[in-house]
Amino acid sequence: MPGHAVAHPLEHAIDHTQATMGCETLTLAAKDVETYFSTAAEVSASRFDAEAIILPCSVSGTLTKGGKRYAWRIHAAGAGYLTEQAARSESKRFLCGDACEKALPALMGH
Question: DSSP letter string over the chain?
Answer without folding.
Answer: --S-EE-SSPEEEE-TTS--TTGGG----HHHHHHHHHHSEEE-HHHHHHH----SEEEEEEEEETTEEEEEEEETTSEEEEEETTTTPPPEEEE-SHHHHHH-TTTTT-
